[in-house]
Amino acid sequence: MSTPPAPTPRPRCDSLPEHHVYLDTGCRFARSCIQCPLHRCVHDLPFGARDLRMHHLELEGARLLQLGYTDKDVAHRLRISLSSFYRLKRRLRRAAPDHLY
User: Fold this and answer.
1) Verdict on whether the full-model pTM lies above 0.85
2) Could you give the angle at which helices 49-66 and 71-78 cross, rounded to 10 degrees?
3) Angle at 77 between CA 74 and CA 79, to 5 degrees
4) 36, 28 Cβ separation under 8 angstroms
5) Count of alpha carbons within 13 angstroms of residue 11, beta-carbon side
6) Taking the chain, what is the end-to-end CA distance rounded to the nearest angstrom?
7) Are 62 and 101 in contact (CB under 8 A)?
């Protein structure tokens, strides 16, 4: 005689998605997730909005440097200190070593 299989445990009723109430409260960028203009949610990024801001600073800093602005001018336009700009510039050099930053 074989033993009958053990009964499969039933999932908790609150673990099923159809029994969970999702509140779309949005964030500081949009009132709701559906209306959000961002391609990726800031809550999904490892450091949240900080990563998003750093990405923007890197893109804008690289653009201004390519246009010929001085280091001091770029830092002033990005509203960051000169030492923060040098750290940003170092990250740009690591990301694209063939560019002249």
Assistant:
1) no
2) 140
3) 105
4) no
5) 7
6) 77
7) yes
What is the distance between the alpha carbons of residues 7 and 24, in angstroms, rounded to a whole number? 37
Q: What is the pLDDT of residue 17?
A: 67
- The answer, yes or no, to whether residue 24 has pLDDT greater than 90, is no
The C-alpha atoms of residue 43 and residue 28 are separated, in whole angstroms, by: 11
**Cβ of 44: how many Cβ atoms within 10 Å?**
9
Separation CA 40–CA 47 (nearest Å): 13
CB atoms within 10 A of CB 42: 17
DSSP alpha helix (H) spans, 1-101: 49-66, 71-78, 82-95
Q: Which two tokens stand for residue 98?
A: 């063939």
- Find where tokens 């009958």 sit: 4
Q: Pull the structure tokens for residue 41.
A: 């949610």
**DSSP letter assigned to residue 45:** S
Q: How confident is the model at residue 70 (pLDDT cuts 50, 70, 90)?
A: very high
